[in-house]
Amino acid sequence: MRITAIAGGVGGARFVRGLRHHLDTTPGLADAEVTVVANTGDDITLFGLRVCPDVDTLLYTLGGGVEESQGWGRSDEGHRVQEELAAYGVAPQWFGLGDRDIGTHVARSLWLSQGLTPSEVTARLARRWGLPDRRIRLLPMTDTPVETHVVVDDEDGGERAIHFQEWWVRHQASLPARRFVVAGLDRAAAAPGVLDAIRQADVVLLPPSNPVVSIGIVLGVPGVRDALRGTAAPVVGVSPLISGRPVRGHADACLAAIGVESTAAAVGGLYEDFLDAWLVDPADAGTVLARARVEPFDGPLLMSDVPATGRIAAHALRLATAVAA
Ligand code: GDP
Ligand code: CA
């Protein structure tokens, strides 16, 4: 079985880890291949280093090196490099880069400077984390530089665009977002393997990733949405909202910026041109979508630990079988 998932950072990574756990512990499913198409709109260059937050969160979570308490960054992390940078007055200080994490960014930046593509670099990083051995293929959505920017009000009554990370990390999404502008997206080409992974999948899954700034960005890569509309595989999504609220993060602020209600129904509606089934929390059992089957999960839709997440993934796969029949 070939499973393709479209993922952002923490929500996507935790879901795929649970999915892999379910496959590995279920007779007959261990051979299944999982391809993860990762959002790269969050990418940023800091201190001359290329940082890919969603790809890194996927690497660390799926490779067993994540700081579990926060869901991103390296475990057993220190901040001595950042202290030195602060002593030199090197900006910005609002984005925390741990010492071990910096090792990833140095390796990535070095390989990029030697001419490797982001896909090739990601494959190298993934080998270190053992992903191919675990039948996980991690693909950035594109090798074209793409950056999500947020348009906010400036002090003079005008508008200015800031990098998504500045809005999310520095301002905690508290500045009202007027709109998102994704530099480079309309001219981006899907990375090698991305469109085929969608077209040739047996199942496509949308983890409970942010619908606007994670999945929404991947959907904006030319060809991706058409591939999803055209694939023979059932497409099943998992809601990132419970009773209208994101489980973590600021998806509600992102939805407000694009004029979409913060409900499981409205998020499912963003995918309705290709979605076959939508797994929601029991609290959202009343959700109705015109073209997709809506199913409440048989418990809280919370990825509280790996086995619990595995049960959510298993339910999504059963739904895929049901809608394909
Ligand atoms: P990010 O790039 O690190 O922000 O991560 P993603 O975009 O992959 O995922 C963020 C989304 O995951 C948020 O909108 C959360 O509401 C959602 N999320 C996180 N944990 C859970 C969970 O346990 N259950 C559900 N249903 N959604 C979750
Ligand atoms: Ca992200």
Automatic annotation (TrEMBL):
Q: Which keywords label this protein?
A: Magnesium, Transferase
Q: Tell me if Nucleotide-binding is a UniProt keyword of this record.
A: no
**Which Enzyme Commission number(s) are on file for it?**
2.7.8.28
* Coiled coil location: none
Q: Name one GO molecular function term.
A: magnesium ion binding
Keyword Transferase on entry: yes
Q: What is this protein called?
A: 2-phospho-L-lactate transferase
PANTHER family (alphabetical): 2-PHOSPHO-L-LACTATE TRANSFERASE (PTHR43007:SF1)
